[in-house]
Amino acid sequence: MPFLSRVLPLSVCLALTLLAGCAPERDPGNVYRGALISNLKTFDPAQASDSYSNQSQFQIYEALYEYKYLARPYEIQPCLAAALPEVSADGTVYTIHVRTDIEFQDDPTFPGGKGRKINAHDFIYSIKRLTDVRTDTYGWWIFDGKVKGLNAFRDASEKLPALPDSIHPALYDQEVEGLRALNDSTVRIELTRPFPYFKYILAMPYAAFVAHEVVDKYGPEFLNHPVGTGPYVLKEWRRGLRLTFARNPKYHHGFYPTEGSPADSAAGLLADAGKPLPFIDRAELYIFNETQPMWLNFLRGNLDRSSIPKDNYSQAVTPGRGLNEVIRKRGIVLNRMWQLDLTYICFNMKDPVLGKYKKLRQAMQLGYDVETVIDRFYNGRGIRAQSLIPPELAGYDSTFRSPYGEYNPARARKLLAEAGFPGGKGLPELVFLTVASTEARQRGEHFAQNMAAIGITVKVESCTWPEYLERLQVSRYQLVGASWMADYPDPENFLQLLYGPNKPPGENNASYQNDAYDRLFEEMTRLQDGPDRMAVIRQMKEIAAEDAPWIFAVHRVAEILSYQRIGNLKPHAVAESPIKYYRIGEGK
Amino acid sequence: MLSGRLYSAMEVPLLLESVIRRLKRDKVALVAVCVIGLYLFAGLLSLAGLLASGFAEQVGEAYAPPSWAHPFGLDVLGRSVWERLVQGSRVALIVGFFSTAIAIPVGAVLGLVAGYFRGWVDALVVWLYSTLDAIPTILLLLAMALVLPTGKGLATVCIALGVTSWVSTCRVVRGEAIRQKELDYVRAARSLGAGNLRILFVHLLPNVLHLVLVQASLVFVYSIKSEVILSYLGVGVQNFPSWGVMIDDARLELVGRGVWWQFAAATAALFVLVLAFNLFNDALKDALDPKER
Amino acid sequence: MLNFLLRRLAHALATLFGITLLIFALFHWVGGNPVLRLVGKSATPEEIARLTHRMGFDRPFWVQYFDYLGDLVRFDFGRSWETKQGIGEMLADGIGPSLSLALPAFAIATVVALTVALVAALYRDRWPDRLLVTLAVAGMSLSVLAFIIGAQYVFAFQAGWFPISGWEPGVRGLPFLMLPIAIWVAASVGSAVRFYRAVFLEEMRKEYVITARAKGLAWPRILSRHVLPNAMIPVLTHLVMELPMLFTGSLLLENFFGIPGLGNMSISAINASDLPVIQTMTFIGALLYLGANILGDVLYAVVDPRVRVG
After folding, report:
1. For A241, which of C31, C165, C260 is closest by C-beta distance?
2. Is the CB of residue A466 less than 8 Å away from at least one CB of chain B?
3. Rounded to whole angstroms, how far apart are CA atoms A415 and A531?
4. Are A100 and A117 a contacting pair, CB within 8 Å?
5. Using beta carbons and an 8 Å cutoff, which residues of B are at the interface with A?
6. Residue C270 placed within a domain
């Protein structure tokens, strides 16, 4: 076939040229490459208990509300809801309109493989699923005791046989008093009492919309088959290596924010105001078990964004807190943000010695050299905490000073003597519990060294993370090193840590009990943000500082490095790395 | 043992004497023994509180490099690496001693009994050690360290190492016992009416003692090396400097800050001790070798 | 032969039973009440008790044990407590990276050790022998931690010859694997050299070698015709017995070099007290050991028929 053999190559050439000419100008670099410093566990929103799972999940799943990208202090905006909730005058009834123009991503589960529209019942189902004991979720606490009738639903679910065998729709069809869909687009939530921060709960990853058909179909493997409404869909998950997300073609309800501070505007963060999201077609998240490889890959330009491992800090940041010249020349920029967190050392108030002597606890606060901790263990990234509330959260006051919020060994010794233990005499050896990691142990040894300097003998004991959690839950410790990161940006999230009724197995690990504090706390939960609420919070901080159930240590600052080519990047402490806002191309 | 001589219980000192005589002639062995002696001396002194008692105190700037005042430099909390090193040798020797003291008698007795009686006793012992041996050692050690009621710490490490490392001793002694029980001297003892216990401990034991000695030395080294790894993984010695803890500390500061002295010191201390034991061990094997005795 | 095999298998089964019992008993009491970590924040004691009951953790030890055995027989390893992923799938994910490190490392280490041992044996008691044996003893004495941390620091971090850590599937993974493989070889070759050297020396002392030597046969011929074939038996047995090392040997290496294999998984599981995963890893390690043992016995029996009788 001489003809074909001559013509074929020609036609192939022609076709290739045509294809190349017709193909849209595709930017091969429209890919974002981020890092997770932990193995991703699951894509089930009910199991989103760590920040890495959160980060991966909310590229796919969405809840009624989401955090505004640029606003500080942090605020929420409607996502799957049509508007902010309508709250009754007494603050207990929330009426929320759910958008009905949004569809789940396509999945074989749905008829014809086409994702169906979401509705109010999906929200009800998702919350009921979170409540169902058989889902085995850490996230139940966000609704525990807050919604009328929901706890009864939980109790009822407990009597059912284990999950994969029986889903029991009968229970799910039963109406819960405080959690109802009035119609396909309206949700009515009745709370047991006012919780002003409830709107934040509705923005948490635990409260994401899941489709019941998908949960039913995949059963225990649901955690590997995410089907959401968000900007991206999961393309590939190579365990222990990489996650690949692709743009969700059906996503059309997200737009870049139009409001921001003058600083945001100056930083070029408002250039895309009002444009449809997302900008990036593909996102890859690489999984690292250790920070070193992540750091090196970042320096080589294989990652777009990275945190700075503690041990590489001096390599990246100058003593003047600027970016090192060599690194800056590679086109890397440094972003800072407050982490909305607090590290502290918790006293077990049930301990016969520590619980009894207030002056002893105060002395230990005074004897703890927090500045050295910040310098040596956090590379100077943080400030000494004077209270429970971190910067950038309502209730934080940079002028507030705890009477014991300084390093003063002389005063510490004096207070120790006043407590009846001059030079530490008469004190038993105290045990400081910490998790078994090199840095946690070193911090413990540093604390012990500080205490030895004022005459108190402290022994460091390290244990695994689960054992640590268990011992906090059963109060089997004397002193424990702890930290708390905000679940939602309301001061309640921190202040509840010392609320009497929250004592173990609740979150009040210290078993701290002060009636005045508890009364103020209850008042605070009823008040909307404003001067009255701030005044109450101030009183609570004063009580906590004086009683010293904790040694307040550090509010940390996070530093994130990114390449300039990633535009629109502003670190967010609550909703970490929302890729949909990023864009590839020179940022400012 | 065929060409070597046989020993009775009374003659055990004789055996030891001949071993010592041979070791004395071996220069390498002498040096090794001296090195081990030095470690032992340092360990004992620190145990008595005479040496390196200020190991927890801050004596200078954090991460100060080696200097005349502090020849091994200082660590993250400004503590003397030298003093921590000395305390670490104490931990190493304690762990080596106690785990050997558990493993060797258990292994030797079970091995003798199994090899001598055979039958179901043998089956049971073999089953027991095959089971223990089949479980990956490091996982078993970690599990033991977590599960023992003594809590985390030195005692737990000793026990965990002791009860997992008798297997090789038992295997070796059992094999030898099986072989020797058919030898003339055992038959003669039996025909003279000696009881089983007597045969086991008065006749057989002295003649497997050379194997037990070598095993003891091996277990000792193995325990020291394992302690470092356990401590490194965070389930070892608590609240006290050990070489493993020091290596764990040093790992971060080495890569991040180029602080090499703690890593170098702990590694060298461990290396020299283990090397000394390995050399001693070889010399011991040679000295006990029946072909040359 | 069949009889011999059956006896070995029966023995292995008994051991397997002991292993599962020991593992289960150990982990039954490890880490306290497993339920506490499943219930999440602010669970009441009643809730904990109910969940304990629902998960079956309040049943008698033996009931739980046989339940566990039943699952094992069906190769159902359950789900991880930590990630809720199926352990079977986790194993499938981890085996590739593990083997990509262990197989080449094991092969190279064996070749290197045999070569070095042969050289040492040929130069017995002369300086090359002394040098090699000294090096071997020194290598045996250096802690594996020192090998890993030191080599990673010097060759990967300072010299920049290798990536510090990481893993990629396929050929792209080669640069990541070179350093860990080299460390494996360096750390394991010392004791192997001493063993093989002893084997070769033993063989070379034998009458027939001495006779052959006296007859004027050249060393290469003696070696390839006589010494090596005869030494194969102990060498092979030794190798087979080392096979389980493929699984445990890489525990620390995988962890340090961020290789997402079974060893790395085991260490994460231990840190998280993820008992189902630890149990499975231990069980698989034991299974490998038993398999290697049987293989070793069979090899031995094939070569030396007397074993079958004894």
Report:
1. C260
2. no
3. 35
4. yes
5. 56-58, 62, 76-77, 146, 152, 234-235, 238-239, 245, 248-249, 251-253, 255-257
6. yes
Chain B interface mutation, best of C141, C152, C162, highest count of B Cβ atoms under 10 Å = C141
Q: For residues C290 and C298, what is the distance between their CA atoms, to the nearest angstrom?
A: 12
Task: Classify residue A133 by its DSSP letter.
Answer: G
Q: Which of B77, B148, B232 to mutate to test the interface with A (most CBs of A within 10 A)?
A: B77
Where does A324-482 have alpha helices with state H?
325-329, 358-367, 370-377, 409-418, 438-453, 465-473
- Interchain CB distance below 8 Å, A311 and B255: yes
A347 burial via Cβ count (<10 Å: 0-12, 13-18, 19+): buried
* Type of residue found at A550: W
Selected residues 89-148 of chain C with any CB under 8 Å from a CB in chain A: 90, 93-94, 97
A66 — phi, psi (to 5°)? -145, 165
Angle between helices B81-117 and B119-134 (to 10 degrees): 150
Q: Please state the domain extents for chain B.
A: 9-292
The class of domain B9-292 in CATH terms is mainly alpha
| pLDDT confidence bin for C248, thresholds 50/70/90 | low
Taking CB atoms and an 8 Å cutoff, what residues of chain C touch B146? 30-31, 273
Structural domains of chain A, ranges and CATH numbers in brackets:
62-220 (3.90.76.10), 341-557 (3.10.105.10)
How would DSSP label each residue in B257-289? H---HHHHHHHHHHHHHHHHHHHHHHHHHHHH-
Residue C15 lies in a domain: no
Which chains neighbour B (Cβ–Cβ under 8 Å, 3 or more pairs)? A, C
Pairing of strands A566-567, A583-584: antiparallel
What b/e readout covers A349-387, taking b as 16+ CB neighbours within 10 angstroms?
A: bebebbbebebbbbbbbbbbbbeebbebbbbebbbbbbb
Contact assessment for residue C141 and residue C157, using Cβ atoms and an 8 Å cutoff = no
3-state helix, strand, coil in chain C (%, to 5): 80, 0, 20
Residue written as token pair 């105060």: A362
**pLDDT on residue B291:** 54
Domain count for chain C = 1
Q: Does B136 touch chain C (CB under 8 A)?
A: yes
* Interchain contact, C83 vs A293, CB within 8 Å: no
Q: What gap in Å lies between CA B227 and CA B90, rounded to an integer?
A: 12
Q: Cis link prior to A231 (omega < 30° from 0)?
A: no
**Which chain A residues have a beta carbon less than 8 Å from that of B251?**
438
Instruction: Name the pairing type of β-strands A86-87 and A179-183.
Output: unpaired
- A239, C93: Cβ pair inside 8 Å? yes
| Digit-coded pLDDT (tens) for A35-80 | 988 777 789 998 887 777 788 888 999 999 999 999 888 999 999 9
Q: Give chain A's end-to-end CA distance (angstroms, integer).
A: 61
Q: Distance between CA atoms of A286 and A283, rounded to whole angstroms?
A: 10
Question: With an 8 Å Cβ cutoff, is B208 touching chain C?
Answer: no
- Say whether residue C170 is in contact with chain A using an 8 A CB cutoff: no
| Number of neighbours of residue B215 by Cβ within 10 angstroms | 26
In this predicted model, what pLDDT tens digit does every residue of A399-457 receive, in sequence order? 999 999 999 999 999 999 999 999 999 999 999 999 888 889 899 999 999 999 999 99
Instruction: Confirm whether C10 is domain-assigned.
Output: no
pTM for this structure?
0.84
Sign of the CA dihedral running A47, A51, A56, A59: positive
Tell me the helices (H) and strands (E) count for chain B, helix number first: 12, 0
Best mutation target among A432, A463, A464, A479 (most B Cβ atoms within 10 Å) is: A463
Query: Which residues does chain C have within 8 Å of residue A436's beta carbon, measured at their own beta carbons?
Result: 271
CA B164, chain centre distance (Å) = 12
